[in-house]
Fold each of these.
Amino acid sequence: MARSSISPTGKEVFFDPDDVIVSKTDAKGKLVYANDVFLSIAGYREGEVLGQPHNMIRHPDMPRSVFAVLWETIQSGREIFAYVKNMTKSGDHYWVLAHVTPSRDAAGSIVGFHSNRRVPSRSAIEQVEPLYGEMRRAEIAAAGPREAIAAGKEVLQRALDAAGKSYAAFIFSI
């Protein structure tokens, strides 16, 4: 999928608050399942997404450091909730409150990941968007990819420290 050829339009699209976007990936993050709501809001056909990296819908405004925290958490076997700005095939964007969990085989080994996404509250987006902007600016100013992730995480940690909350408590408080 030629993701780099998609440019953000600045137009936000919405899905029904009663709908749930569902996707499943293998252990490396490649899509193995996407429900009809996912396909409809993202503007893809099933054949275009299966086998592709889940980050094919990552909006460039999203801090890479948020995804670093997400991956560290789920690869350690824990669940995570996160506010995420995704990009559609046409370049429009949509916000979600994602709940991502590891999927395990009978022996307990992580074999993939399952994500349910719902419509977030507007007030949560209004609170998280400036933080994500600050994180992205820190990432962009960094010397390289590893430094960018560290810079974004540092901004996030300062915000968490100022709020006196853990990441999970912060997400649930907004």
Amino acid sequence: MDAAAEEAADVLKSLSNPGRLRILCALVPGDLTVGELERALGASQSYVSGQLLRLRNEGLVASDRDGRSMRYRLADPRVRPLLERIYELFCPEA
């Protein structure tokens, strides 16, 4: 139980950062490149890349090479339902 609580707390720490949360939410519908994430978030390439590096190190996103660019995707299937519920609760349709 202690190990599971630690693991859950680590995931929740990542979700508690607005920038990382926005990246993860943007990846729910499907894979995106850094450039696509930059446009979706209105953020700089260096910021997005730095956050993606942290999310990769935490095991929440993974990447695949697509020609000259990298495509990022959610790596931990347990995170998708959390993100979907957060979106449902905090981003209601207008």
Amino acid sequence: MAKVTGLGGVFYVASDPAATRKWYADMLGVTGEYGPQLAWSEDPHAEPYSLISHFADDRYIAPGKGGFMINLRVDDCDAMVEQLRSKGVEILGHVDEGYGKFAWLLDPDGVKIELWEQGEAPDS
């Protein structure tokens, strides 16, 4: 049986796709030919990757509707929060739930981004 194996990408309309891609590069350190590319290894051609792609209009997305948030896995949530704050990015919240650390911010188009650092699995 076929199965889903991970996040292939997130696609949405941005008022200025080039400026949004620059923000992702400057603030989060992710770039790519078609938008921020999140490699699953250091060599993005050796392993699968996820993509965040921004469009100037909704022709590609239609008839889909908005109402979403992007969850990005990070290796050190506390350090990422401090890095973003030092660049003037407002952090909406930052918590450690034990099973993971989370922080929230908005990109320049108002899309909510959740940063997630995986913690220890809860006891079952």
